[in-house]
Amino acid sequence: MSKKRAIFFLVTSAFLWGVSFPIVKVAVSRISPFDLFFLRFAFAALFMIPFIGKNFAKGHLILLGFLNSSAFLMEFFGQKYTSATEAALITVTILPLVALISIFIGEKANFKTSIAVFLTVTGAFIIITRLDFTNLRFSSIKGNLLVFLATFLWAVFTVISRKIQRDGSEQTTWAILFWTGMFALPVAGFRHIELTFYSVTVSLILAVFCTIVAFHLFLEAMRKIDATTSEVIITLQLPFAIITSMIFLNEKLSLSMIIGGVLITSAIFMVAGEEE
């Protein structure tokens, strides 16, 4: 796989994850977030069964599935106790976390990537806060801590995935997604899951496009691109989320969003322009 193709995969993943924000926002107004979480990942696990291969039960694949599923669940519970703005701002810390973890395990720091990380974090900060610092009242330590722990798990997931995907096969990707879904199944033990035409339809859309396809492209791209660079590009999901929210939820575009989007896009071009 060429680096350009890997970057295209990552941008597509960012688009699918970005689109999922307005989809989920509308969905949780009609069905329980618990039901949506369970159905999304249960469907994803079910669809993975024919593709996982005979070596799907390896310990590192189970670990990655557990990390991914746990991160989603922690983020969900964290957002019960904190604002969306605070949660989104905390989630952006995945960039420096991935960079620090990567350096800690021996990856060399790249100056251009470091600048791209800075531009991405700055751009994301501007987009999320809209430069209105009254949005930064960290009123819930409990919720913010859970979101930060979720972000840390995703950072660890990203770094470990990068190491595995270098020599892995396509079945490795499917196995990780399968275990992500399997670890969501215990949620059904804590509540009655209501099955309606709407809940099944929206969950299937999220499972197929925003989970299976998005994670598959993300994990495949990480065979070619280092973990820190991949997270810089994936942050493009923020402007994608804003654009789709403007179209479908009638949200307005502000100057701060434009500035933040330009910074993030500049960071992506910096990463994409590196030598293969």
Can you give a write-up of this model?
By secondary structure, this protein is mainly alpha-helical. It has one domain. The chain is 74% helix and 0% strand. The chain is built from 12 helices and no strands. It has helices spanning 3-27, 33-48, 59-81, 84-91, 94-104, 111-129, 141-165, 170-182, 197-221, 227-234, 237-249, 255-272. Helix 2 packs antiparallel against helix 8 (170-182), helix 4 (84-91) packs parallel to helix 7 and helix 5 (94-104) runs antiparallel to helix 10 (227-234). The longest helix has 25 residues, at 3-27. The radius of gyration is 18 Å and the shape is globular. The mean pLDDT is 80.
Summarize the structure.
The protein is mostly helical and 276 residues long. The protein is 74% helix and 0% strand.
